[in-house]
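Lay summary

Proteins are chains of building blocks that fold into shapes. Our project writes down both the chain and a compact code for its shape. Here are two examples, one after the other.
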Amino acid sequence: MVHATRGIVLRTVKYGDTSIITTVYTEMYGIQTYIVKGVRQSSKTSAGKASFFQPAAMLDMEVYHNELKQLQFIKEYQWSYLYEQVLFDVIKNTVAIFLVELLQHSLKQPEANPELFHLIEDSLKQLDRGTATLTANLPLYFILHLGSELGFRIHGNYSERTPVLDLQEGMFIAEKPLHPYYIDGPPASTTSQLLEIPFYNDLENIALNQGTRRQLLRAYLDYLSLHIHDFGELKSLAILQEIVS
């Protein structure tokens, strides 16, 4: 049976002489792997089709789905959103690749999570339309809310009584813990702000220097690695830290 679903491409590799295998985070089925035949042929009918499956591409798809199979098939596909800047702007593209790699390391099970799908979709659209400040702050916002959607939301907020964020426990506390996984002072206060903002545009009001942004990125990735088994290191992190200042 054929089902309609939206999807966000996470990874694509060549398969055979003319086909690809692509990993897609779908709204209906969560993370799935599909084989797409013939998209790398040099014929007129196949020209440009491989571009639909570049990382961060957002698609409307008709797919065949069998719960018993690991490799699925796509019948039809088209753009659900056509980027204006992300694929051509070096900084925005770097952020998009970072978000995609983050998902590759974080999504371990195929179960659907519509709220997570919408977070990813909305974040990529806002990245495409956003200012330089929004672009620079978006990875921080995304990591925190990704953790929430995966089931380990940070509890509490920054205050005089709770000025320390314990990354291991995922909560704001009164005193520094015995382990090294915590932040306090301005980084903890900024984290509380990022958790509380209601709209993406509010990211433009959070002014951070390069050093603070790097510190927060590293802390938030520690937060994910403490809660996601075998999280690993992100190859795109060094590039992101260098280019988003």
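And here is the second example, written the same way.
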Amino acid sequence: MEHDFLFASEEIVEKVNETMPPEEEMQDLAEFYKVFGDPTRLKILYVLLCSEMCVFDIAGLIGMSQSAVSHQLRVLKQMDLVKNKRVGKTIFYSLADSHIVNILSQGLDHIEE
């Protein structure tokens, strides 16, 4: 059922309309936060918070197969949460930027309150 009126003042309605990101950005933001909805990916991000590492070491630390870790790293890389560099035959992964550190620490602060 649709209403023909709002209880919010015109000022508030205008402010909301001005600050609301476009639909496409909201979709992108939802996809971004979905990535944080997987405990394995969070573990990988926390490992990389401490140090850059290769798949072999990450897999050993979190007790998963290298292929499972590689799959999750691919997802994290597609969302620009991690980056990699090649040293010889080994690929080392690290957090993409300091925003990721802030997102993780703020999320943890929030649930620990």
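What can we say about the second shape? The radius of gyration is 19 Å.
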